[in-house]
Design a protein that fits this description.
Layout: H1 4-18, E1 25-26, E2 32-37, E3 40-41, E4 50-57, E5 60-71, H2 74-77, E6 89-96, E7 103-105, E8 111-116, H3 123-137, H4 155-190, H5 203-207, H6 218-233, H7 239-248, H8 251-257, H9 265-276, H10 293-305, H11 330-346, H12 349-359, H13 363-373, E9 376-377, E10 385-387, E11 390-391, E12 398-400, H14 402-423, H15 427-439, H16 447-456, H17 465-477, H18 488-493
Parallel strand pairs: 5-6, 6-8
Antiparallel strand pairs: 1-2, 2-4, 3-4, 4-5, 7-8, 9-12, 10-11
Amino acid sequence: MESSGKLYEKYLHEIWQNQSFTKPLRTFDHNTITVLDPGVYNESSAGPDFQHCRLQIGAITYVGDVEIDLDYHDWKRHGHNIDSKYNKVILHVSFTNNQKHHYVFTKAGRKVPNVSIKNFIDPEIAKNLFENYKTFESSTIKNIKCAGLSNDVKFKVKKEFVINLGIQRFNKKSKRIFDRLKELVFLEENQIAEPVIRYELSKQFREREFTYEDFKKTDVWKQLFYELMFEALGYSKNKSPMLKLAKYANLNILNKINDTVTNDKIKLFESVFYNVSGIMPDVNNLPASEVDDYQKELNEIWQTVKDIYDSETLNETQWHFLNNRPQNFPTIRIAGGVRLLNMLLYGDLIPKLIKKFEEIRSDRVLINSVRSLFIVKSEGYWTEHYIFGKPAKDKIKYFVGASRSDEIVVNIVLPFLYVYFEVFGKTELAKRILKIYQLYTQKSDNKIVRDVAEGIGLDGYKKRTIFAQGMIELFRSYCSKGKCLECEIGKTVFE
């Protein structure tokens, strides 16, 4: 599908080709532009939009190319300043140039005048283009400077580069998990409570040499998995508070309060998490008519265990409800997290995962079996509520659906088990993890993956996990940082 940016630029191309201007063009340093020949439209996706143009700018006549962009800053965003194909540009035409910059610079270092045509075309056309451009400005695709220009790069080169980035991303996740594992072992040995101040771990932690024996305690692995699950359930907006919740209400604290009140572990955990998170309403100061039975029950449990809880708490302002789909509200994600935690503590979740990788020979069956473990159907109060005290219009079917389950498997389960198998010398199972990672196909994608896939011509691979992860890594490590000439694709496109 053609990007919005390319679509709107086509309107500008037509305006230039037909010279549909309402008055003579002038640069920001007041030189009149007379178009003697608008040039030949470049049908290919590489190079300036119009070639062989003849323009008189001030008193001088120029022959060369014209590049047309939506905004002045697109010259750099699209990488024209590092692309030798744009060295012959004699005029940069943009729809907007709010800062009124006079020039852009080619790769060869030559100054090229800019003209903003917003005030030189029909006001109604300009208004429509401006409204459409504001929508486009918020998109990811604007950061992908080679979008639609990578046809010259061999398909095999693009695929291999993205696959390598996907593996790099997996290795980064695994390293992060292993680093946190070592940190948890160190914290337990030295009886340091969360939250940890980084300097507490400085010299002694760096000098600590870990051995196989240090990682034998199952509770350390459980705490690690618990933190990773909760962080993943937070999505991008609530990752930090969800991770803090798992660190504050850690397994040591949960074990202290576990047998004090009720055999219903789900209710106990819900009471703890909604109160520690700060999301639970203060039912003691609300009118009785506004407090339902569920809130009363959680409050009664909390009153019994709150003196045992000796860690930090969060407050409601640290959570993001605004601009989140109700399905992603922290209330729903905590409800899902509680049930996964229950599986972790009382359902042998980690041993089950290990057993599946040891015993299931079919890759397809293994993938589906692991994915299904993390799909959590709704139940109880949160089947009909998104927030406390206000029934939802529609019933909630899942606390954790198939798409979020995929995210947990890809971002948590696979790198976690890879670290586990590596630590305990199970090399063949570690290799199996990498194989599954390369075969895994997800149910959904996200905007970054869609935009990068479209931009570099790998649209058919965006559901394959290793490609999707590689595209995220490509965007975050190269595209968004303007490191085009360090990218294997950019090196060819902008040679």
